[in-house]
Write a structure and sequence with these properties.
By secondary structure, the protein is of the alpha/beta class. It is built from 19 helices and twelve strands. Helices cover 40% and strands 11% of the residues. The strands form two sheets. Strands 9-6-3-2-1-12-11-10 form an eight-stranded parallel β-sheet. α5 (123-131) crosses α6 and α12 (272-284) crosses α13.
Length: 493
């Protein structure tokens, strides 16, 4: 069935208090999606972010980001006052997230709400803790101990708790009992507010496309709680880490630094952790986009300690076996395979054998040196087309940055000659919507025709990313009407 959606991270919503949240503005965005005839809202990972603020480097593969908790809802529940929220300095630019200020102010408020909550008397909270015990206990203890060690990675903790010695675990559970309960209560609030928003979206005909990173962060509860799942040595240091080899974009490659999975361990355990992770994801999302899908076929392994990604090598991943196990355990769930980048025949075969739709990005299509699989006349129906993603330049800025021959190819392909430059973004959007792809997803920045200032992420560049926000009133009724009209013309309503 043909459909379309809009990509907007939760953090980019125009909520009050410095960052997008599960607030009134999120519900209003759902209303706008409905008015625009959309069927999907695609977001980025919802996990708690670490240094660098990337949702792809989270303290947990299962936990949610406390920043997204709606403070106004806590005011309504009597856990905070409006004056307390408004007295905080969350930054003064409604178009950017100031993560340092959010970090310094948000947790003080959330802690105050927790102290007033009388959580020990909350039966729903007790049920939540029991139902999520398999990940929640480790996550909350991890965060509480991390706080005691002034935020450093678990690899720098004292040896006894770093190695999870039973006596140390019991000692810290007792010593940090209040902090542990605080982190659990944050997850309780997060889950309740998110599922309420998701239910509202679903009731209005909007499905949520979530996003899970293939890897977990080294500085995470996942690695500390289960080091046996990863390629670690006896001292709990990685033997190799993840990244990408050198290419046209980076002469030294990309050194992500994430620990690599011990796939033999996962195979022996029947991929139990992956089953848990995907089952958890489908409680939060209707469709799951799996990032860096090619890593399941072959993954790039870089010796631990290397300063660049130049001297890595490709190693075999679990292949189709993992996805056959997931289908057997969870049923045939809707998954999108992020299969961007250089694709070998075996990666192409894996995507095909899985049956999952892959991704097509128009910003990758116009290479004058060769025929591209990203040009719409080469599409198969079973794919998702994007003008660009969170990692790409906005459509308008991308076009301005195109080289002469590539720009000429784009001008010829879309017959842009004589058109108003301000309308070019709409022609590329038309190209995506009219394609045979079953699903078309357009970043809201491209509908708005925004420039480089609205880019979400610049891969391999630390700092300044993940900060762009939609401003209140930018997504107008007029824009929703225009989107709806095109959606209807191209059979996606």
């Amino acid at each position: 069935m043909r459909a379309s959606g809009i990509l907007l991270p939760v953090a980019s919503l125009p909520s009050k208090y410095g960052i997008g949240a599960f607030s009134k503005s999120a519900y209003e965005f759902v209303d706008k999606l409905k008015a625009a005839g959309q069927k999907y809202w695609q977001i980025l990972p919802l996990g708690p972010t670490s240094y660098g603020d990337s949702p792809y480097q989270s303290f947990s593969a299962f936990a949610g980001n406390p920043y997204f908790i709606d403070l106004d809802a806590l005011v309504e529940e009597g856990l905070l006052t409006k004056e307390e929220c408004e007295a905080c300095d969350f930054g003064d630019d409604p178009g950017r997230v100031d993560y340092e200020k959010i970090y310094n102010e948000r947790f003080k408020l959330l802690q105050e709400a927790f102290f007033r909550s009388r959580s020990e008397n909350n039966q729903d909270f007790q049920i939540f803790m029991n139902e999520n015990k398999e990940w929640l206990d480790d996550y909350c203890l991890y965060m509480a101990v991390k706080r005691r060690f002034r935020g450093v990675s678990w690899s720098e903790w004292d040896e006894d708790i770093r190695g999870r010695e039973p006596e140390a675990m019991n000692r810290y559970r007792e010593m940090c009992s209040s902090e542990i309960r605080f982190y659990a209560f944050m997850q309780f609030l997060f889950r309740n507010q998110w599922l309420k928003l998701k239910t509202y979206a679903n009731e209005n005909g909007i499905s949520i496309i979530g996003d899970i990173p293939i890897y977990v962060a080294f500085d995470s509860a996942d690695t500390w709680a289960a080091p046996e799942m990863f390629q670690f040595d006896s001292s709990l240091h990685p033997t190799a880490v993840a990244g990408c080899p050198p290419d046209g974009f980076s002469a030294t490659g990309q050194l992500w630094g994430n620990p690599l999975y011990d796939w033999e361990y996962h195979r022996r355990t029947g991929y139990a952790w992956w089953i848990r992770r995907m089952r958890h994801s489908f409680k939060l999302y209707d469709t799951v986009r799996v990032d860096h899908f090619r890593g399941f076929d072959e993954y790039y392994s870089i010796p631990y300690g290397d300063a660049t990604a130049e001297f890595g090598c490709w190693k075999k991943g679990p292949g189709i076996e993992l996805f056959e196990v997931l289908k057997r355990e969870l049923g045939d769930r809707p998954i999108i395979a992020e299969d961007l980048g250089y694709l070998t025949p075996s990666v192409i075969k894996l995507v095909k054998d899985s049956g999952y739709p892959g991704m097509k990005v128009l910003e990758f299509a116009f290479d004058s040196r060769e025929e591209s699989d990203y040009l719409p006349h080469n599409y198969d129906k079973n794919c998702v087309v994007y003008t660009g993603t969170h990692d790409n330049q906005t459509l308008s800025a991308w076009f301005d940055e195109l080289s002469g021959e590539d720009r000429e190819l784009a001008m010829d392909y879309l017959n842009l000659y004589g058109r108003d430059r301000e309308e070019y973004n709409w022609e590329f959007i038309r190209l995506a919507l009219e394609s045979v792809a079953d699903l078309a997803v357009i970043p809201i920045q491209d509908y708005l025709g925004l420039g480089a200032e609205a880019r979400i992420n610049r891969p391999s560049i630390l700092g300044g990313n993940w900060a762009w926000r939609l401003r209140a009133g930018e997504f107008t009724d007029e824009l929703a009407g225009k989107i709806r009209k095109l959606t209807k013309i191209y059979g996606r309503l």
